[in-house]
Design brief:
By secondary structure, the chain is α+β, with helices and mostly antiparallel strands. Helices cover about 35% and strands about 25% of the residues. The radius of gyration is 19 Å and the shape is globular. The N and C termini lie far apart (about 55 Å).
Length: about 250
């Protein structure tokens, strides 16, 4: 028992430490940050945008086959940050849940219902000894028929919430404080301005200028409610607009 105050309590997922903490769940959050990627999402007036870095670990990998953006239903999409394999598992489960809902009820699952369902599943993973929490965090965007653009985040602990803007990953604290400052006055965010703010946020907190191939950007808008990933040419246009403005 010479390993300090958390001795033995991080071995087992279902045991609380004397301070009332679940160390394994906290380590799952660290796993998300350890991925080295930072993702940002912003909800505008008529659109919602998710953006993440694109890092190809090996020169031999075909970069077109690597992505952290996933379409869950035609109108709901997400960006995953953290362990790649865990991310794919959660995306697969989300697609199954969405398909089952459509089959049962005859209409598309609302984004908040899907996010709540995934959060409920993640929460079960923090209770059962034979499971481990998923080392990934999902940020989901969609256009809701009643509410307009919506943005939800679901974390490894099974907590989910709606956001105006959020960030997750290696530099999430810096990115969140940047977004808080920018959104303090509740600006009117058009589609282009939302995308450019997300790119600016990422390049500011990481202190680097991006090329179009180093970013992944996906959007949903009221005019085009289907989730779509922007091409390199479209991202380049936004990068030029940012450079001209600065």
């Amino acid at each position: 028992m010479s390993r300090g105050s958390n001795a033995g309590f991080d071995r087992h997922i279902t045991i609380f430490s004397p301070e009332g903490r679940l160390y394994q769940v906290e380590y799952a959050f660290k796993a998300v940050a350890q991925s080295g990627l930072t993702s940002v999402a912003i909800r505008g007036t008529d659109s919602a945008v998710v953006i993440t870095q694109k890092k190809v670990p090996d020169k031999l990998i075909d970069s077109s086959t690597m992505t952290n953006m996933f379409k869950l239903t035609p109108r709901i999409g997400c960006v995953m940050t953290g362990h790649n394999a865990d991310s794919r598992s959660q995306v697969h489960r989300a697609r199954l849940e969405a398909g089952e809902w459509k089959y049962k009820f005859g209409y598309d699952i609302p984004a908040d219902v899907l996010c709540r369902r995934l959060a409920d599943i993640s929460q079960v993973y923090t209770q059962n000894a034979e499971m481990r929490p998923l080392g990934c965090c999902m940020i989901m965007v969609a256009i809701d028929p009643q509410q307009g653009p919506v943005l939800y985040k679901c974390d490894p602990a099974g907590y989910y919430c709606g956001f105006r803007a959020t960030a997750v990953g290696a530099k999430q604290i810096e990115a969140n404080s940047y977004l808080e400052k920018k959104l303090k006055k509740k600006p009117d965010l058009s589609h282009d301005r939302t995308i450019q703010m997300a790119i600016s946020c990422l390049s500011t907190v990481l202190s680097m200028d991006f090329k179009a191939s180093e970013l992944e950007v996906a959007v949903v808008t009221k005019e085009q409610p289907k989730f779509r990933i922007l091409s390199d040419a479209e991202i380049e246009e936004h990068l030029i607009a940012i450079a001209e403005r600065e």
